[in-house]
Amino acid sequence: MGGLIQEGLSTFFVEHLIEQTKYLVKEQIPVGGLVIMTRYKNIIEKINQKPTNYNFSKLPADSFEKELLIGEIPIDYIDFLREVGFGSISEGYFMFYEGLIPAEEIFDTDINSEIKNIFLFGDNFSGDATGFFRTNNWAIVDIWHEDLSIIPREERTFVEFVNKIISNEL
């Protein structure tokens, strides 16, 4: 771990990375002669079972640079972009963005200044957005469009959130 910190990664980032991965068991998927590790195997299988319910696109490998530059974002989010991609679930149920969007690009920070601390990863097609509250340990939150209030979600990880969304329990 000392090598990572010497190469410029913060201690917080390394600890956060370890925390994100120690509770998640990755599945192995054979692809040709290779074995690929994935934490979203069940999600990919569900999408493949009913492709008309999902409209996902894969991202090119070099498109993650913006998210990696933000630093300290949950690794399970990056894995989702790599393994699943971005797109919509059902017709108008939920949209996963192609990358993180600063909430202040969409919502007025004059009404709620805490919005500047949120990076959005999706929305419910009704004006309410979901994202990471970066100054609150990257907690997952909703921003309600009516009053721009920030509502904490019960899911502790992005994987938990995705599983709930895919099972249509939003």
Number of domains: 1
**CATH fold-level name:** SMI1/KNR4-like
* Strand arrangement, major sheet: 3-4-5-6-7-8-9
Alpha-carbon Rg, integer? 17 Å
State mean pLDDT (0 to 100 scale): 79
Output the CATH class name.
Alpha Beta
SSE order in H/E notation? HHEEHEHHEEEEEEH
CATH architectural label: 3-Layer(aba) Sandwich
Helix content: 25-40%
- How many strands in all? 9
Structural class: alpha+beta
C-alpha termini separation: 38 Å
Corresponding CATH superfamily: SMI1/KNR4-like
| Number of H- or I-type helical stretches | 6
Unreliable segments (pLDDT under 50, ≥5 consecutive)?
1-35
Most strands sheet = 7 strands, antiparallel
Morphology = globular
Give the amount of beta strand, in percent.
25-35%
Descriptive overview:
There is one protein chain. By secondary structure, the protein is of the alpha+beta class. The protein has a single domain (2-166), classed as 3-Layer(aba) Sandwich (SMI1/KNR4-like). The chain contains 6 helices and 9 strands, in the order ααββαβααββββββα. The chain has helices at residues 2-6, 11-22, 41-49, 65-70, 75-83, 158-166, and strands spanning 27-31, 34-38, 54-57, 86-89, 94-102, 118-123, 129-133, 139-143, 150-152. The strands form 2 sheets. A 7-stranded antiparallel sheet has the order 3-4-5-6-7-8-9, covered by helices on one side. The protein has a two-stranded antiparallel sheet with strand order 1-2. It is globular. Mean pLDDT is 79; it is low at 1-35.
